[in-house]
Specification:
This protein is α/β, with parallel strands linked by helices. It has 17 helices and 15 strands. Bound molecules: pyridoxal-5'-phosphate.
């Protein structure tokens, strides 16, 4: 069958999408109880697919309707200026980095950044210092990161006259760096203390880029973590399509303050975007902004649906759903979630996430011992027609949005209870994936230097960078992913 035929089939007979895009293929409109039509995105693409004809402005030099849309976006998201993007957060990251970092400039960034960030700094031939060298360590606290950033900025400022730093032609590296790059939230919704980190960086005159691809919805409810724009970041990238009702590839790049030259940002959004931006996608951004302006009350209903879901799944015995403290209940302890010790099934069953630090919209489900997150995803797909966003050996992620109705949440909760009962009877066993060929390619790689980036996908964060040594530990981590049926770009 051809791709378009496959997609037509999916339309009438596809699995329920607990994945992006956030419009959920209009499933919200399909449920009668709520949201009827409010997030309806149905358009026949060719009917509104135009080029820059008279009256429809030009994204690369907006003066009319597109300028109005970007002003509406800036007002909604509280930024000084906002650029509409039709090439995803990927082009937002590329443009933001190019605008702030001169060729050969210096960057301080998190090691577990999306590959678009790596591509961005490589294109500037930047001298990169990593905030933490341990890519797999999820136990780093906000305090640790802030201290690490402050120490790096201070030591760079002290050695500003040393040759390595003089290499940077940047005029604005009072702190020794041209840009600090952070990812917040990460794929499973954990956030950093952006406000605190920005205060530190700004003290040193260094701008901060936050890759907030997964955080476009934060601003619209106090039950989500603080958004990076209001926290003071200079450059913020949001994918609209991930967590809001907007078509795939739509995103925004927000600019604040004056540490980064707005004209450079404008120039590089043109460099990294198509010269024929899709009006279908821009129309979708426009509809999304209208939804945010007129229907922001929907986010509280969404939070209520999430709360009901978490309450309903708190009693699972074999599966564990990452749980959240109730904001209204100040007695409930809220602590930083520790995904590394087996999540909810770890040392402390009562560990609850703080919804102001972790996005409750990201449902993380941990399998019992003997099963992997990828097994769980296979069961969901095969037996219940549900497609999750991603799975790794340790857990499975279901992505939700304001467009998931209570029926959808109820369905997921019922399905998880059903699987939980089946697991009581020992009815499921671990299946290895069909990656035997890829696993065999791994043999002999440990101890060698990677020729290309090795990137588990999703989430798209390089595990080994090209030119880096493939340690025994990293080779084992990759084998675990492949054996469980996961994919790694660069292998196979
Ligand atoms: C953290 C992060 N940043 C950037 C991106 C790229 O976003 P987009 O798909 O909108 O280009 C992704 C994609 O998954 C991501 O997870």
């Amino acid at each position: 069958m051809r791709l378009w035929q496959e997609l037509e089939k999916l339309k009438s007979d596809g699995p329920y999408p607990f994945h992006m895009p956030g419009h959920k293929r209009n499933f919200a409109g399909a449920f009668e109880d709520e949201n009827p039509g409010k997030t309806d995105m149905t358009v026949t693409a060719s009917e509104i697919d135009i080029t820059e004809i008279d009256g429809f402005d030009n994204l690369h030099n907006p003066e009319g309707v597109l300028l109005e849309e970007s002003r509406r976006a800036a007002k909604l998201f509280g930024s000084r200026d906002t650029f509409l993007l039709v090439n995803g957060s990927t082009c937002g990251n590329l443009a933001a980095i190019a605008a702030a970092v001169p060729i050969g400039g210096r960057v301080l960034m998190q090691k577990d950044s999306h590959k678009s960030v790596y591509n961005g700094v490589r294109l500037r031939a930047a001298d990169v210092v990593y905030i933490t060298s341990d890519i797999s360590n999820k136990n780093i606290s906000n305090k640790d990161i802030s201290e690490e950033i402050e120490a790096a900025l201070e030591s760079a400022a002290e050695s500003a006259s040393e040759p390595a730093v003089q290499k940077s032609p940047s005029p604005k590296s009072a702190g020794g760096f041209d840009l600090v790059i952070l990812t917040s939230p990460d794929y499973i919704g954990e956030t950093l203390d952006i406000a605190g980190i920005c205060r530190i960086c700004h003290k040193h005159g260094v701008p901060v880029l936050v890759d907030a691809a997964h955080g476009a919805h934060f601003r619209f409810s106090d039950n989500f973590p603080r958004d990076a724009v209001s926290a003071g970041a200079d450059l913020v990238v949001n994918s609209l399509h991930k967590t809001l009702p907007s078509l795939t590839s739509t995103a925004l790049l927000h600019v604040n303050g004056d540490l980064v030259d707005i004209n450079q940002v404008k120039y590089y959004t043109q460099v990294f975007q198509t010269s024929s931006p899709s009006y279908v996608l821009m129309s979708s951004i426009s509809r999304c902004l209208q939804f945010l302006e007129e229907e922001s009350g929907e986010f509280e209903s969404y939070v209520n649906r999430l709360e009901d879901f978490y309450k309903a799944t708190g009693d699972l015995k074999n599966l564990k759903v990452r749980q959240f403290a109730n904001a209204k209940d100040s007695e409930t302890p809220a602590v930083q979630w520790d995904a590394s010790n087996g999540g909810a099934g770890g040392e402390d069953e009562k560990k609850l996430c703080d919804r102001r630090k972790t996005d409750m919209g990201k449902i993380v489900i941990y399998p019992p011992e003997g099963l992997t997150g990828l097994d769980l995803a296979r069961i969901l797909r095969r037996d219940y027609k549900i497609e999750p966003e991603m799975a790794v050996p340790e857990y499975m992620l279901c992505m939700t949005s304001v467009c998931d109705s209570s029926k959808a949440f109820l369905m997921l909760s019922d399905v998880l209870h059903d699987i939980d009962r089946r697991l009581d009877g020992d009815g499921e066993s671990q299946e290895s994936g069909d990656n035997k060929d890829a696993v065999s390619l791994l043999a002999g790689l440990a101890g060698t230097t990677a020729k290309v980036d090795l990137v588990p996908y999703p989430p798209g964060i390089p595990l080994v960078l090209r030119g880096e040594l493939i340690t025994e530990e990293k080779a084992k981590a990759m084998e675990k992913i492949l054996l469980a049926g996961g994919r790694i770009e660069g292998i196979g």
